[in-house]
Amino acid sequence: MPFLLIDFPVFNPVALALGPIVIRWYALAYIVGIVLGWIYARSLIKKDRLWGGEVPITLPQLDDFILWVTIGIIVGGRTGYVLFYNLPFFIAHPSEILELWKGGMSFHGGFLGCVAAVMLFARRNNIPILSLGDITTAVAPIGLFLGRLANFINSELWGRHADASLPWAMIFPNGGPLPRHPSQLYEAGLEGIVLFTALAIMIRMGALKRPGLILGSFITIYGIARIIGEHFREPDPQLGFLWGGLTMGMLLSVPMIIVGVIIITAAVRRRANGPAPSSA
Asked: Which of 1, 8, 11, 203 has the fewest CB atoms within 10 Å distance of its CB?
């Protein structure tokens, strides 16, 4: 093995075992991501100056919304994976659709599930849809970051072949003998840290006063980040490369960017609420 290659640190797939209760890293990422997202969302709602007026959602409403968005993530994520990534297999084995512990979640499907949850909850509780979407997407990078770390821990969704001279190239235990990009970590950085930081700076600068601006920015930046990450990530084996070397992740991200730009344009043209935020 070349000197510069990093040995993949093999992890126990089980994060926590309490008798018959077994929690895997991927499930733990979802749980912690939702909890941290809920805490961050509550902090945003408590700061009136960020909204330039009355905050459009109350803390009790946010607490109720967490269940809705959790269901949206799980149902949408699994449905998206079944439809976009492995439909022939699940047609032949329909009983495995509910076996979530075996893995198989689609971000794009989960995002659509979140959109449905936001629209239904907002309509039922008379909350502006765009503002609720802003809150939801402002916290979403937390879950994305943890989810990509869980992918890395599980040694799944690894990267394409890399030159052995790449200092951080890794040989994954289930990825063959050739060194690969740790693309899960690339995506954790882009979809998690970079995206969260960009949205947090925008919020600090008053973006929540323009309903839809955070939502549109999330959609656009994520789409770009995902396309970049896909250049280093090995395509799903059942799909491989599609037209012109594109991957399913790339194709699904293109309409996101288009929709995101449209939402941003509309938000920027919309009159902002209240004065600029305090620099304190």
From this structure: 1
Among 141, 139, 138, 173, which residue's Cα sits nearest to residue 158?
A: 173
Give the torsion through C-alpha atoms of 47, 49, 52, 56, to 10 deg: 10
Cα separation, 216 vs 218, in Å, equals 5
The burial class, CB within 10 Å (0-12 / 13-18 / 19+), for 60 is: exposed
The C-alpha R_g of the chain, in whole angstroms, comes to 20
Let me know: does 147 contact 30? Beta carbons within 8 Å.
yes
Same domain as 141, residue 66: no
pLDDT digits over 79-100, tens only?
988 888 888 888 888 888 887 7
Query: Does residue 277 fall inside a structural domain?
Result: no
> Does 226 count as an annotated binding residue?
no
Whether 191 and 73 share a structural domain: no
Q: Both 19 and 111 in a single domain?
A: no
* Structure-token pair, residue 102: 């075996």
**Does residue 2 belong to any structural domain of this protein?**
no
pLDDT in tens, 245-265: 899 889 999 999 999 999 999
What is the Cα–Cα distance from 240 to 114, expressed in whole angstroms? 27
Total of domains in the chain: 2
Structural domain boundaries, residue 144? 14-55+129-271
CA distance 172 to 152: 10
| Pair 46, 78 in one domain | no
